[in-house]
């Protein structure tokens, strides 16, 4: 067992994926000698060399296009798009080519591409570099979406993503890079589509990912002193989504709060609540609640950015109101 940062767990996951399969190669802007803009590829070029780790021009369209072509030819590309916001630059390649290639060839050609991207707010990068971009891709069948919130999940989900035969978007949260946690020396691969029950509880189910997962746990610990027992679930992947684990929890607690970074419109949290209302309305003793960000861009000013992100107290207050309904 080793204590590592979330960032180091990503690096280890990438390196072990390269070591496990010679068809895997890593490429992106400054991922080789520089070790990546966020140092998530630090030391990998030194280990695997120029043929397996390649720097690219500053062109997200070229990165995604190369990934698609390489995958069609039988390789397993692991591409880095520096900021998740920059996926907008290569959106056409991701949603109209990568996501649809297997379907449009009748399953004759697969695209085992993993694109990993630095995501999320809270680190002062302003509106164009802080968006929770995972929500952009929810309405694109053919893509799998991974959102690790811990070092163990960052490692295990990276391994699963690279080994998957479908395209996977892997969103790493910038606000968690320095978070330190234990990672077993023989850390397991984490299967896609399996949620984790982070904390057991009786009075309310809270579903949260990444930074909000940790704030939800803090809120649950705060409320425990008030006699409110909160169950916290981290879905870990948004597509495929583990609805069964959430539903089983709500069957016990009869209440649901979703804590989400980002605004409500077109979001994974809103989608989850809609699905539960359609399929499990009779389970609820209170209206489900979405604790989320305002419908505004992410501010650069630190105080405004902090207010945009759901805080521990906002999450706790939402749980209080739901339990008291």
UniProtKB/TrEMBL annotation:
InterPro entries: THDP-binding, Transketo_C/PFOR_II, Transketolase-like_Pyr-bd, Transketolase_C
Keywords for this protein: Oxidoreductase, Pyruvate, Thiamine pyrophosphate
Enzyme Commission number: 1.2.4.1
Top EC group: oxidoreductase
Keyword match Oxidoreductase: yes
Matching CDD domains: TPP_PYR_E1-PDHc-beta_like
Cofactors: thiamine diphosphate
Keyword Nucleus: no
Limits of the Transketolase-like pyrimidine-binding domain: 4-179
Gene Ontology molecular-function annotations: magnesium ion binding; pyruvate dehydrogenase (acetyl-transferring) activity
A Pfam family the protein falls into: Transketolase_C
PANTHER family assigned: PYRUVATE DEHYDROGENASE E1 COMPONENT BETA SUBUNIT, PYRUVATE DEHYDROGENASE E1 COMPONENT SUBUNIT BETA
Protein name as annotated: Pyruvate dehydrogenase E1 component beta subunit
Species of the source: Conexibacter arvalis
Taxonomic path: Bacteria, Bacillati, Actinomycetota, Thermoleophilia, Solirubrobacterales
